[in-house]
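Quick one - inputs below.
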Amino acid sequence: MSKIWKVAVIGAAGRMGSEAVAAVNQADDMELVAALGNGDSLELLVEYSAEVMIDLTVPAVTEQNVRFAVEHDIHAVVGTTGWDQERLSNLETLLKEHPSVGVLIAPNFAIGSILATEFAAKAARFFESVEVIEMHHPNKVDAPSGTAVHTAQKIAESRAVAGVGPSPDATETDPDGSRGAVVDGVNVHAVRLRGLTAHQEILLGDAGQQLVIRHDSFDRTSFMPGVLLGVRQVAENPGLSVGLDRYLNLD
Amino acid sequence: MSKIWKVAVIGAAGRMGSEAVAAVNQADDMELVAALGNGDSLELLVEYSAEVMIDLTVPAVTEQNVRFAVEHDIHAVVGTTGWDQERLSNLETLLKEHPSVGVLIAPNFAIGSILATEFAAKAARFFESVEVIEMHHPNKVDAPSGTAVHTAQKIAESRAVAGVGPSPDATETDPDGSRGAVVDGVNVHAVRLRGLTAHQEILLGDAGQQLVIRHDSFDRTSFMPGVLLGVRQVAENPGLSVGLDRYLNLD
Amino acid sequence: MSKIWKVAVIGAAGRMGSEAVAAVNQADDMELVAALGNGDSLELLVEYSAEVMIDLTVPAVTEQNVRFAVEHDIHAVVGTTGWDQERLSNLETLLKEHPSVGVLIAPNFAIGSILATEFAAKAARFFESVEVIEMHHPNKVDAPSGTAVHTAQKIAESRAVAGVGPSPDATETDPDGSRGAVVDGVNVHAVRLRGLTAHQEILLGDAGQQLVIRHDSFDRTSFMPGVLLGVRQVAENPGLSVGLDRYLNLD
Amino acid sequence: MSKIWKVAVIGAAGRMGSEAVAAVNQADDMELVAALGNGDSLELLVEYSAEVMIDLTVPAVTEQNVRFAVEHDIHAVVGTTGWDQERLSNLETLLKEHPSVGVLIAPNFAIGSILATEFAAKAARFFESVEVIEMHHPNKVDAPSGTAVHTAQKIAESRAVAGVGPSPDATETDPDGSRGAVVDGVNVHAVRLRGLTAHQEILLGDAGQQLVIRHDSFDRTSFMPGVLLGVRQVAENPGLSVGLDRYLNLD
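Output:
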């Protein structure tokens, strides 16, 4: 008989949290033992014997939630932002006292998005040219997206290691900036369009050929397979892991 | 029996000209009666009874070629650039003396590209958001492409007539210009990628839906169906026509 | 001051109906005067002076709803299926007694989808090759989609009128049927993929070029702009109109 | 100073061969020492001290060419088809007598195409649904393409190893076969379109997201970077390698 994980969701009333509650309830190998909202006591995690905590709360409380979990030997899968270097260092210190506990903190749980970045970086050393286009809903306040910047950085690293030069570009006149942003030497374009959610396309070109890697996030459910994968593997990965790519065993 | 057009190609040794010679030779309803290069006498058009002249030369000689054709009651299909307002006015004056002669001057003979622009402009009044992405080989010196600028202008006109406001955009921070150029209120992005030729994509978005219109020009042969269509219809369109869209009867 | 339409939604508790209620509430030029569900009396339409009725009910009751509206000089915008030829004929007879009343019955209110089909049909006579790919969620029980069949039929009609022959195809061996369905001479491919909703892509090819027209329906909200456009124009279109394309003035 | 490879091209007058001659001539780290056509003696390879032979000939002569190279301690990069299991076995036997010689036989030298297949196989275990669409020029006689079949097989293997079940599909009625071919449980669709060359798109879908991996081969030059990469690495890979993916170090 396969393992049934006892899972608690913290921040269960939020938009992501309520999706996580639904996803855990639908997973055959998980049992939802607690769904905590604002003001609920963390002691309930212990009372209901949670093995893994999913934290989808807010920056102000995520650190104390995760520290509570680690101190009670509960693994944690964390999608909340706000983990700066100091918080991460403190957490690692605490984890040394609980060497069997695993914590996964991931800024992005959409597996397809992580794969797109990973594949683009791997392919980038074989192509003369590479550019990134990200497309989002028009209510987004920053451009380009953090994901696109991250992808451009990974591409740049991969090309630097392989000794590949910059993408060729003979542009002499571009009065209005149509060539977009240049992030670590990679041109990045941001589209804002009603109807879209979060999309990224990486174009790689060489003589006579093109490779296109595209990821579409249509809604929040796109994060749930990644969250569940985190729950299933966090116990086998003691210590701190930042980024879901560590769990995907792509190499 | 259907009509067989007697066609002459001027500039026959050039890159576009040689494609036109091949295209005319392959067309069942055309006979190539002359293929003139640099230094050949225009009198050969008369000698060989050409009915339609295809001019694919250079700005320095195209005007005298076309005027010769009109004066000898030969229709002309012209893909050469360099026709400013003065040249066009002079040609119209000449055409009045030869009311049965047709001249088509077109900056772009790729039918698909013309359709893409036309469809985008028609659709633009029904969508909250619209942006343009053009993609070309990295040896291109200007950005964005003339075709993309033309498309943005036609989109802007269509939206102005319909009273549609600007595309929504909440962007507050974009330090490196990832949002691209703004042409007549329409965001235009230019990609340069080895392996590509000339491509354009128009994205139209509204609540819950997206319409994408994309054109790919893979090589120079893409212009030939438009040139042949011009040959077949120029006699029925006496006077001066600028732009192949006039012949496509899209309305 | 611009006109404020008094609108009633019938079938207001259903999935489409509740979206329509929300859309009417958000429209500046409309006032929701009634939202009727199962069992509510149609007399409320009269009591609250509805000018336009939106019917999003079920085949069993849509006919009596629309007839009630026409008899009380209320215009109707109808998204319910089940209108066979007999029902349509009876409705037209009734409409002759109420010559100022307009009824719009549309199988598809996604404006982008209607435009995609329309543009594909217009372009199809200029390209040697054309194929259709539709993509839907994997719970769909029929393939290909009705929209794709409709698109293929319109393409075939357009090519027949223009005297364009079949798309070239040298396939000799295709043991497993990878070339898809052939609908009125047009190859149609159906993809089923978790995460997708309703998408259609028309590929048109000629020497050296490709034109791609793609529509994505991400969710039910994609139908609302079409429903509101129907409300705004139904009074100006007395009699029966089948299909929203009649209102788009594309020519 | 970096190594300059002395390279000979066999089949130099053919379509692929002439591209290879041009590519070697343009490579800074290669010197073309011989370009052999039909009837030229293989002894010229020895006379001009070739270190690597590129064989782009025909099935009837490729085996004797490669055996000659191995016997004279010349590495070989082979793009010719016709290498059945017996030929490969015999070659491996011969290579044991020349343990420092490397031979690379690859059915596909388009690096982007190999990457697309590789990435699709890696991603396939994370997604509920996966389908393959290949698009080619309409003169192709077989469907689906060998590359698409290969991709489907690699995807199927990857999913089998990970214990992933078949893609969900509720289709009940599909009278004309729009769902395409099923290759090892993966639906494969073949499009034939004038203007296209060789293209492949792999669609992977899960709740709320899609990953698309697409490769476009626009012309024969797309194979040359892969051929040159083979030349540069064949000496470091003694023995027989089948498939360029072995050289890409993707893991």
